[in-house]
Amino acid sequence: MKKIGILGTGMVGSTIATKMFELGYDVKMGSRSATNEKALEWVVNKGAKASVGTFDEVAAFGEIVFICLKGEAVLPVIKMLKTKLSGKIVVDISNPLDFSKGMPPFLIPELTNTNSLGEEVQKALPDSYVVKTLNTVSALIMVAAAKPGGAPSMFLSGNNRDAKQEITALLKLFGWEDIIDLGDITTARGTEMLLPIWLRTMFVFGHANFAFKVLR
Amino acid sequence: MKKIGILGTGMVGSTIATKMFELGYDVKMGSRSATNEKALEWVVNKGAKASVGTFDEVAAFGEIVFICLKGEAVLPVIKMLKTKLSGKIVVDISNPLDFSKGMPPFLIPELTNTNSLGEEVQKALPDSYVVKTLNTVSALIMVAAAKPGGAPSMFLSGNNRDAKQEITALLKLFGWEDIIDLGDITTARGTEMLLPIWLRTMFVFGHANFAFKVLR
């Protein structure tokens, strides 16, 4: 079983870390600081297969590394990790949301429409296999996909077929049954641009416990 | 029954025109020229309740007017129709797609993310009641919403509650059961930004006979 690195200790990072730990993987979760409180809290009572570290330590440890960072933090962080992430699968779950003008956020203009954060991650990590996925649902649904009314759809973007196959197998362990490979990493534009309607739908429902299904 | 105007004679225009005619409405469909071939072909054997005309004649005739134009044509056309569309419901089905750089198109940059075509339509027609809807599916699904696997979701954006209620009733006649009112016209950003993933999904499936459902 490959070792798993989780960059980010927020809701998404700790949800993915917990799920991978429960699936039996060795997991290291981390942030800027090795003494991040959320990471230390997460590791309690989990034993030798769960550890915490700095971004650098997480990138060195993981054979599959998940990016679970706020959109604006992603590129500055991963640019420092290029060598350590070389040859590895990097799963980008982040979205380029800009909260600087209040709610609802919009997408960071230079990372949308004719570009995407997924593409910039792949450009910053030319020797890694970037797979963009899980960015279209809330953290809890990422690892518990079943919904009333059927199986929602999960999308996948990336340039490397083997990496996408490996992550597809993992998504199935997370409960995803309807997995749609959209194509190369430029298709991440589409999934990142789903965020505005996702946010507005969340406002209407008053909760984030929903997911899109492509009926066909 | 209100009189229906259809701006545009393409696949979307003729599909909506035919459905409204079948529902018993008086329908006038039009384009730049009153002798548009597609419009003349559409009107054959339909009797007095179907007619063709120029954009001007369609706008004057319709009490509910559908915008079924290519994205780039919408604003130039409707700006000329401001007076004739005053006080009326205008249903904007268009998307701000830019095909100038080839396939897949992206969204016209000044009409996305922090703006939308729907918003610009409402600004150009300050005395009309603009409702953005139906822009997230292909023409045939617009008027025949049932899919294998359940009822897909249709979204609605607009500033006027009465106008949205009237169009919601119409959407039900089109077969839509799950209609989600996202809020004011700025929420059209979300539905227009669904187009990139819609296009990529169409490429994967090789057809446009699909629709999104919000499972919750």
Please give a quick description of this structure.
2 copies of one chain form a homodimer. Chain A is α/β, with parallel strands linked by helices.
Question: How would you describe this structure in keywords?
Answer:
alpha/beta, 9 helices, 11 strands, 35% helix, 216 residues, globular, two-stranded antiparallel ribbon, homodimer, eight-stranded mixed β-sheet
Question: In words, what does this structure look like?
Answer:
Two copies of one chain form a homodimer. In chain A, the strands form two sheets. In chain A, strands 3-2-1-4-5-8-9-10 form an eight-stranded mixed sheet, sandwiched between helices. Chain A has a two-stranded antiparallel sheet with strand order 6-7. Chain A is 35% helix and 22% strand. Chain A contains nine helices and eleven strands. The termini of chain A are far apart. By secondary structure, chain A is of the alpha/beta class. In chain A, helix 4 (71-79) packs parallel to helix 5. Chain A has helices at 11-22, 37-43, 55-61, 71-79, 117-124, 139-142, 161-173, 188-192, 195-205; strands spanning 4-7, 27-31, 50-54, 64-67, 89-92, 97-98, 106-107, 129-133, 153-158, 178-183, 211-215. The radius of gyration of chain A is 16 Å and the shape is globular. Chains A and B meet through strand 7, strand 10, helix 8, helix 9 and strand 11 of A and strand 7, strand 10, helix 8, helix 9 and strand 11 of B. Strand 11 (211-215) of chain A pairs antiparallel with strand 11 of chain B.
